[in-house]
From TrEMBL:
The lineage of its organism: Eukaryota, Discoba, Euglenozoa, Kinetoplastea, Metakinetoplastina. This is Splicing factor 3B subunit 1, putative. The keyword Chaperone does not apply. Keywords: mRNA processing, mRNA splicing, Spliceosome. Belongs to the SF3B1 family. It comes from Leishmania donovani. GO terms for cellular component: spliceosomal complex.
Length: 1026
């Protein structure tokens, strides 16, 4: 590099002192890091701050910062050049003589043709910029400005324009300090060349952050196309700056992660140079509270590993294994686990084995943490690497205390991940773990006890019983520990030991049961800790499964009336789960009385009726008793009667729900008299003003009616049906669903006890309106009930009334009519509907309402064939003349609805032979509509024409399952090469659907291409006929 700074090729930056470096006449952007220099000092800023006196903009004064930055870069570049020259200088004879002994060496003659090329000199300026992180230098030089503070430390008020320009999203207040360049050059006619790349980069990153879907796509596409021009280093500098500015919410972070993934995919192997930046950017996401961010971090690291390779990533994170900060080491362990998941356990195990011999205890601690995280991620796939990991863990379990503790946690994680296998490989660790468990007390032994609990379920029954019997006295002595975290570990270990196959009920009853309840259930404050209480309840249920419900209920039932709401809730939850899991068949009468009395008392304590738990507990106990409930029926129904008449609507609803759940058990206990009185009372309350209570009453009435039958139900079913005529008019969806279900039960099972005229009126006036319900479940239940009613009272009267609705002006009424007819066709058979439809279509021709009626008929045909399925194969041929007539109409809407009806017919006959001719016949009428795009006087495609094209394409999709795709291909071949682009698009879209559905069936129909001199196209194996 000469004194003038000029080098061969013109590509090396000039290093003239005090001058701006140039590259081929254009100011370089320092590999992406644009200096923060603005215009000349004193220039008018491009926007003003709010306030009385205008202040000097920080945009105008950066000449000093620019000079300092440039001088620092030049000094660094000169130092790099000096170091490079020192390492690459020629070794002289004198120097070699000074370092090599004179004897035993002979100086070889230099070959005559030896003329080595001089080493290629790198671009020191570019290396200096990259290593010094110029953007951070400039950001540090103006840190107060970047943080949104002026020279006095006061917040800067930015004048944010409402419109940032075409294709730009709006700017938030907190974005101004970060994307300040966009405000600086918002209305500038020309942006200086040295700031243009930085402006364009921040502009498109701003689109990704705040833009809508199209703006984000445009910004991402621009940055990916220009990534090689901007330089990946520059992009990640700015991305890291935005990321660390604390202005991104969860959604915006997700958008940037998507951009990073796209950038990694495009850069490929070139991403190795910024591997460190990517890892440091995303590793905090692995410990985020939001699952979507954790998944994003895993996806980026997985993609990075697969792009650049495991060794490149490991080389970056290796130095952090022994980092002084604990959070950094934890992040490193998680990164190592994710990378190992992406690269495979073989490579990561080899790397961890090397690091396990590191002299630093912190590095060895990070190794075992990585093992634990890797086990949680890969699960059972870890078995292949288990022998090597066990060898490492066996050595690390005898290391320093902190390494031992994390090694024990790693053993626990590995045992849980490989369960129920892996005990053969983990066997050498069992003795070490048991030994440490016996030595330690309290939280010091917690990791080892946790590891022991994970190993016990993997052991053989004999070993599990022996190890548990030896360890349990030590654990029982620590049940009264005051440490919450250690208590949770003990509860979890007890549960795993109880679950072990070899641990006998006798051992549990003698050794564990009494200390367990004394040590854990008597500590009432545990109920306030959700995690601990949940683990305690789960362990209690497992003990009950081994011992039976009696031993556990005897311990828990005295606390069912406890005054502490939280503790009572924990007790009731445990009792409910124990009774659900084991029943109460073995419980003596005294215990049954005690438990039932406690459940009723708990219900009485719920004065507002808002607790679902107490009612669930009472219902569970009653259902578990079955016929044994008989002596307690009066006690239960006295409670129901008092709460049923309460002013609180929630309490009335809660009581009705209880009745609906125990009605069957009451009948088993000979409680028909109680249900009769209750049914009469509920009937009188079917006009409850509260929707929740009314819907619960309907469910209870349905349960009672199902148990008593129509003969013992009071009042009569006829009176109940009349009352439902008014109830079904409610606008509440829960009330509607309850009323529809009750009407369906009456129409199905008790149709002889009601008048047909009542069912007819209920169907045509009540249910018909609900066919338009916004709730999908309500519409389906209503249509099903409509069909059931029509079948019971004979459908013809209803059909005549429905067909008349085709002449209604309201479109929604006609759609509901078509749905009702399809429900009737499904229940009563298509023969009851189709003649009426054909007749209506014919006689309406020439009338003023012809179009409306014919549209409705076609829609009804579509719904009917969609509902009846393969039953409709017998009714296809009678529909052909009607469909032919509709497909040749000039009205595009008529043709579109006919195409949709044809599609429904083909799907209904799919899988049946003999309908290929019909499909081809209809295709000849449907196919000309595929190019129904633009009319002569239209510039934009109309909505109805788009619907037509969609309907035709869907008909092709349906025809594919009836006829050979090759025949459809013959219809599409010409259009695939049509000169008009819009026509080609439709044909290609249709072809793609057929190809995706049946690619292998198209192969025999492709054109045959003969071989030429250099290519062989013929595949003889495709011509083999079997």
């Amino acid at each position: 590099m000469g004194s003038s700074g000029v080098t061969a090729g013109g590509g090396t930056p000039l290093f003239a002192s005090g001058s701006t470096p140039r590259m081929g006449g254009v100011t370089p952007m320092f590999t992406g890091a644009t200096p923060a220099a603005g215009a000349t000092f004193g220039a008018t800023p491009n926007y003003q701050y709010e306030g009385g006196t205008p202040l000097q903009s920080h945009f105008a004064s950066s000449v000093e910062t620019q000079s300092i930055t440039t001088a620092a870069i030049e000094a660094k570049a000169k130092a790099l050049e000096k170091e490079w020259n020192r390492k690459n200088k020629r070794l002289t004879s004198e120097y070699l003589d000074s370092i090599l002994p004179r004897e035993f060496f002979t100086v070889a003659a230099v070959p005559a043709d030896y003329n080595p090329l001089p080493p290629e000199e790198p671009n020191f300026y570019e290396i200096a910029v990259r290593t010094m992180d110029v953007f951070s230098m400039q950001a540090g030089a103006a840190a107060a400005v970047t943080a949104g503070l002026d020279a006095n430390g006061q917040p800067i008020k930015y004048d944010i324009p409402e419109d940032m320009g075409d294709g730009m999203p709006t700017m938030k207040v907190e974005d101004a300090a970060v994307f300040v360049e966009l405000l600086k050059y918002h209305k500038a006619e020309k942006i200086p060349d040295e700031h243009l790349p930085s402006y364009l980069l921040m502009k498109n990153l701003f689109k990704i952050k705040n833009g809508d879907t199209m703006q984000r796509r445009a910004g991402t596409r621009y940055l990916l196309d220009k990534a090689t021009i901007f330089g990946s280093h520059f992009i990640f500098q700015r991305l890291s700056y935005i990321w660390s500015s604390d202005i991104l919410n969860i959604e915006e972070k997700h958008y940037f992660i998507d951009f990073i993934k796209s950038l990694l995919q495009q850069m490929g192997k070139g991403a190795r140079q910024f591997t460190k930046e990517v890892i440091h950017l995303v590793e905090p996401l692995l410990t985020a509270h939001e699952r979507i961010l954790r998944d994003d971090g895993k996806q980026v690291l997985t993609l990075l590993t697969r792009v650049v390779g495991f060794q490149a990533v490991f080389a970056v994170i290796r130095e952090d294994f022994g980092h002084a900060e604990s959070i950094v080491r934890r992040h490193t362990a998680r990164v190592m686990a994710v990378v190992g998941y992406a690269a495979g356990t073989e490579e990561v195990t080899a790397a961890l084995r090397d690091m396990s011999y590191a002299p630093s205890a912190l590095a060895r601690q990070t190794v075992v943490r990585s093992m634990a995280e890797l086990a949680k991620m890969v699960g059972h796939a870890l078995i292949a690497a288990l022998p090597e990991m066990v060898a490492m863990l066996e050595r690390l379990l005898r290391d320093e205390k902190r390494v031992q503790r994390d090694a024990a946690l790693a053993v626990a994680a590995i045992a849980e991940a490989t369960a129920p296998d892996g005990i053969e490989e983990l066997a050498p660790l069992v003795d070490v773990i048991c030994e440490e468990c016996m030595k330690g007390i309290g939280s010091m032994a917690s990791p080892f006890i946790q590891a022991f609990g994970a190993l016990v379920p993997l052991m053989s029954p004999y070993d599990a019983q022996a190890r548990t019997a030896a360890m349990m006295p030590n654990l029982v002595n620590q049940f009264s520990t005051p440490e919450d975290e250690f208590r949770r570990v003990l509860i979890s270990v007890v549960r795993k030991c109880v679950l072990a196959e070899g641990v006998t009920p006798q051992f549990i009853r003698q050794t564990i049961l009494e200390p367990f309840f004394e040590g854990f259930w008597r500590v009432r404050r545990l109920a306030a800790e959700r995690q601990t209480s949940g683990s305690l309840v789960a362990t209690t249920v497992e003990i009950a499964k081994k011992l039976g419900s009696v031993d556990v209920l005897v311990k828990l039932s005295p606390d069912m009336k406890d005054e502490s709401e939280e503790y009572q809730r924990m007790v009731l939850t445990a009792i409910k789960k124990v009774v659900d899991a084991t029943g109460m068949d073995a419980a003596p009468d005294t215990l049954v009385t005690f438990v039932l009395d406690g459940a009723i008392a708990a219900v009485r304590q719920d004065e507002l009726g808002t607790s679902k738990l107490v009612m669930n507990v009472l219902a569970t106990i009653c259902n578990a008793l079955a016929a044994r409930l008989r002596p307690y029926l009066k006690q239960v129904f006295d409670l129901i009667k008092r709460r049923r008449e309460n002013r609180e609507a929630s309490m009335r609803a809660q009581t009705a729900d209880l009745v609906s759940r125990i009605a069957h058990t009451v009948m088993l206990a000979d409680g028909a008299v109680f249900l009769q009185d209750l049914g009469l009372s509920l009937y009188e309350r079917l006009e409850d003003p509260d929707a929740r209570a009314l819907s619960a009453n309907l469910r209870a009435v349905r349960s009672i009616l199902g148990e008593l039958g129509s003969r013992r139900f009071k009042p009569s079913v006829r009176e109940l049906l009349k009352r439902l005529t008014f109830v079904i008019k409610s606008r509440n969806s829960h009330v509607q669903n309850g009323a529809i279900a009750l009407i369906e039960d009456i129409a199905t099972n008790y149709d002889t006890d009601v008048d047909a005229i009542h069912l007819h009126q209920l169907a045509t006036r009540g249910l018909f309106e609900l066919l338009d319900s916004p709730q999908r479940a309500t519409r389906h239940a209503c249509a099903r009930t409509f069909g059931v009613i029509a079948k019971k009272i004979r459908p013809f009267a209803i059909i005549l009334e429905l067909v008349d609705n085709f002449r209604q002006d309201k479109r929604q009424i006609r759609i509901c009519t078509a749905v009702a007819l399809s429900a009737i066709a499904k229940e009563c058979g298509p023969f009851t509907i189709i003649p009426y439809l054909l007749n209506e279509y014919k006689i309406s021709e020439g009338k003023q309402v012809a179009v409306i009626v014919q549209h409705s008929v076609l829609k009804a045909i579509r719904y009917i064939f969609e509902a009846i399925g393969s039953i409709g194969k017998e009714y296809v041929y009678p529909m052909i003349p009607l469909l032919e007539r509709a497909l040749t109409e000039t009205n595009i809407q008529m043709r579109r609805m006919a195409v949709e009806a044809c599609r429904a017919i083909l799907l209904s006959v799919a899988g049946n032979d003999g309908f290929e001719d019909i499909a081809l016949h209809l295709l000849n009428f449907v196919h000309p509509n595929i190019v129904e795009l633009l009319a002569k006087n239209e510039v934009k495609i109309g909505e109805e024409r788009l619907k037509m094209v969609t309907a035709v394409v869907s008909y092709y999709e349906a025809a594919r399952v009836v006829i050979e795709p090759g025949k459809l291909l013959q219809y599409l071949l010409q259009g695939l090469f049509h000169p008009a682009r819009k026509v080609r698009d439709i044909y290609r879209r249709t072809y793609n659907l057929i190809y995706v559905g049946s690619p292998e069936r198209l192969v025999p129909y492709y054109p045959r291409i003969e071989n030429d001199a250099s290519h062989t196209y013929v595949r003889h194996e495709l011509e083999v006929l079997l």
